[in-house]
Amino acid sequence: MPWLQLRLNATADTAEKVGDLMSACGALSVTFLDSKDNPVFEPMPGETRLWGETDVMGLWDAEADMDIVVSYLQMHGGLTKGQRYKLEPLEDKDWEREWMDNFHPMQFGERLWICPSWRDAPAADAVNVILDPGLAFGTGTHPTTALCLQWLDSLDLTDKTVVDFGCGSGILAVAALKLGAKSAIGIDIDPQAILASRDNAERNGVSDKLSLYLPDEQPADLKADVVVANILAGPLRELAPLICRLPLPGGHLALSGVLESQAEEVASAYQSHINLDPICQKEEWARISGIAK
């Protein structure tokens, strides 16, 4: 099916209004794109954060009368007189096939590979985790997940218990089990994440070793040899007293989901309980790790 895309520039004050107007006049989807590569991180719950210079893109059926759409936007203040906009056809593609073609097996550390189910594992004797991109809970493509996977690969997890705090897709817990951990515990505030983690554990044949909890259901005396928390800087700071209680003395802890500029502040919340390693960086992201005192 062919499509038409209308693209125009807006500001943080006007972008949401423009998007609403596009939807009101028949846009099948509306996308906000940072036009100056200036991302905003950690929006407050329920808050829509928009960039200072934002391209708003609406998508219509190719048979839509775009003159009517443009007139509607001009009439209601979504498009000012003389403001430039771009109207372009989009090629009709097999989007699902193209999406699948973009995902390849990825290696983390020396042994660990994350593989989509539709591709062959590159090394049968490696540690292969089968995980498909789906809900945005973590597939290994983001630097913070990569930092955590590399860290897990560097440890001897034989007979160890691992806590994945903020488990999302379960990728870290499943990887730890495939790397030799005796058992893993996944904790997340989102019931959908619990379901995703359970599905991925079953797909990888480790569901019998993985326990999953919402925060108010987790055991009060929970302890583990290895703890990894890939969430965000704000929650990591706020939850530091809770997270510091999870590793056994001498146990390993890793924290990510942290921007390089936030790492020192987050690390300071843990240094009284954790002997910290040098902060590890990947692109603009960081991993904080250490040994529990």
Automatic annotation (TrEMBL):
Keywords: Cytoplasm, Methyltransferase, Ribonucleoprotein, Ribosomal protein, S-adenosyl-L-methionine, Transferase. One of its GO terms (biological process) is methylation. It is an enzyme of class 2 (transferase). InterPro entries: Ribosomal_L11_MeTrfase_PrmA, Ribosomal_PrmA_MeTrfase, SAM-dependent_MTases_sf. GO terms for cellular component: cytosol; ribosome. Its EC number is 2.1.1.-. It comes from the Bacteria. One of its GO terms (molecular function) is protein-lysine N-methyltransferase activity. Its main location: cytoplasm. The keyword Mitochondrion does not apply. S-adenosyl-L-methionine binds at residues 145, 166, 188, 230. Methylates ribosomal protein L11. This is Ribosomal protein L11 methyltransferase. The lineage of its organism: Bacteria, Pseudomonadati, Pseudomonadota, Gammaproteobacteria, Alteromonadales. The gene is prmA.
